[in-house]
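Troubleshooting log. The previous structure file for this entry was overwritten by mistake, so regenerating from the original sequence record. Sequence copied from the archived sheet and checked twice against the printout by T.R.
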Amino acid sequence: MAIARFPTIVLDCPDPAVLAKFYSEMLDWKVDASEDWIDLRADNGQCLSFQKVEGYRPPVWPGQDVPQQMHLDVVVDDLDTAEAAVLALGATKHAEQPGTTFRVFLDPAGHPFCLCLS
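Regenerated output below.
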């Protein structure tokens, strides 16, 4: 039996509104905002949250001077189409691309995330 349910992934960032807008447009999830915290929710209940952190320092990948601690993998049907879309939303393609079935990007706050072929 589970001790808890409905885990939420929370990303620290300097501006929750900017990061939530990026992910809400990429995932087409609904925004529920308060002053320093924003939840994005899918119709099925999945949740991704963003928390304002003063003095935020983005992770440095693949180095570990400022470790990434976590990253998101999202599934796409076409890497080229998805890449163009996330770049238009404000993502940055990382110079390090270690695979052929996925691509590494940085969200507007510098968190690594990968577009992965389905």
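The two ends are 31 Å apart (CA to CA). Archived copy saved in two places this time.
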